[in-house]
Design brief:
Helices cover 25% and strands 15% of the residues. The strands form three sheets. The protein has an eight-stranded parallel barrel with strand order 5-6-7-8-9-10-11-12. The structure holds 2-acetamido-2-deoxy-beta-D-glucopyranose (5 copies). One 2-acetamido-2-deoxy-beta-D-glucopyranose binds next to loops.
Length: 442
Amino acid sequence: MRTSTLASIALSAATASASLTSITVKGNAFFAGSDRFYIRGVDYQPGGSSDVADPIADESGCTRDIVEFKKLGINTVRVYTVDNTANHDACMNALADAGIYLVLDVNTPKYSLNRADPNPSYNAVYLQSLFATVDSFANYTNTLAFFSGNEVINDPASSAAAPYVKAVTRDLRQYIREQGFRSIPVGYSAADVSENRLEMAEYMNCGTDDERSDFFAFNDYSWCDPSSFTTSGWDQKVKNFTGYGIPLFLSEYGCNTNTRTFEEVQALYNTEMTSVYSGGLVYEYSQEASDYGLVEINGDSVTELADFTALESQFSNTSNPTGDGGYNSTGGASGCPAYSSPNWLVANDSLPAIPDGAVKYMTEGAGTGPGLTGDGSQNAGGASTGTATAGSGSATATASGSSSTSTSKSGATAMNAPEWSLAPMICGAVVVMSTFFGATLL
Ligand SMILES: *[C@@H]1O[C@H](CO)[C@@H](O)[C@H](O)[C@H]1NC(C)=O
Ligand SMILES: *[C@@H]1O[C@H](CO)[C@@H](O)[C@H](O)[C@H]1NC(C)=O
Ligand SMILES: *[C@@H]1O[C@H](CO)[C@@H](O)[C@H](O)[C@H]1NC(C)=O
Ligand SMILES: *[C@@H]1O[C@H](CO)[C@@H](O)[C@H](O)[C@H]1NC(C)=O
Ligand SMILES: *[C@@H]1O[C@H](CO)[C@@H](O)[C@H](O)[C@H]1NC(C)=O
């Protein structure tokens, strides 16, 4: 363990417009220009969820942590909550200077879907907050992607909320297009629910191009050291996701049941996985109550824990495959999974229409967001009242050039044998929590 203490440095004065090559999607992979791009990252939310705060509006905090990010050799951080009224220039530019991209959750605890009763929570007040967050980050070249939701579906029963997750994804993509922003990829971060993992992935990538996602990600804690590609079951997941037509990555990984050696890094960036996966994000940078941290933060000082050293050495020992890693350049849509009780409770392929009150944001822009101190959106009224006409958003999927008529080979096979139960999370789930709650249950 080493300790480094840093004085905070005025970053904003240093640079006004750092820039990285923006990430694009081609087939089932990410690209930086003509080079395949693999996410090598960590999840970054110091303070955890009980202290709802924006880590990339905190200049001294991000300055302190970027030093550690560089040491780890990462190229991406995921942030779960931001304040859409704050200025992010200093941290975003400092991240860009360090070669680091951002994957951002656009929901916040108070502005999110309610998985137990999604219709009222899918309203104009909610979407305005999401769109305002997009406005705040769209200009940064190192905004890699937006997560439209995080673990909204966390068991078989909550699959009934999937049409709302997909509608939010559609609306974010349409907003980005209509505002003339760069084609920033939008996708969903799924809980690793074995009963409907594959259905959710296929569902988010089925139908017309305006309703599909640009990528899919899921959280995976199944590799617990000592393990291997086969013992962990990662080999089976590669097999099951082969032919999936958009980029796939792990939005959280790093089981902490035993001593973490992070040997899964060697598998994740090996050609045994890179034809299907585009890397992942280790949960998580800072030590919180759930005990997944790589470092302990104390004011301006950071103490590297043993997990930090283990991960640092795995990253430095593991290079990306040469060439394109065997990605699938064709890409394309999946078939929509059929209704199958009790694991997949989506009756048909139609989506709720955007709430009437949110339509104007498409042309007028979202305006000022509510930040982290707003009243919250779940009971704000003005819910969706109709069903959307598929294709009405007339998107050209940024996911691929191919049309929605192609179907993937990976059929929507029902999953059986639950590996674990997330039942505690259903009870009184009023707010869709970010994962720093959920991970403690894994
Ligand atoms: C993004 O860039 C556009 C065009 O230059 C500008 O009008 C807009 O204000 C910028 N947004 C932010 C949040 O800086
Ligand atoms: C892969 O799919 C098969 C069915 O085709 C299923 O039985 C199995 O549980 C899946 N494995 C994983 C790890 O998703
Ligand atoms: C590539 O993706 C397409 C569309 O999803 C699929 O039909 C095809 O089987 C995939 N090819 C391979 C080798 O996985
Ligand atoms: C480094 O990676 C190689 C394979 O990429 C592996 O065989 C070796 O054991 C790794 N070394 C360490 C110290 O983990
Ligand atoms: C699809 O299912 C939803 C929810 O069950 C229902 O409200 C809607 O009417 C259905 N649409 C069609 C076209 O069957």
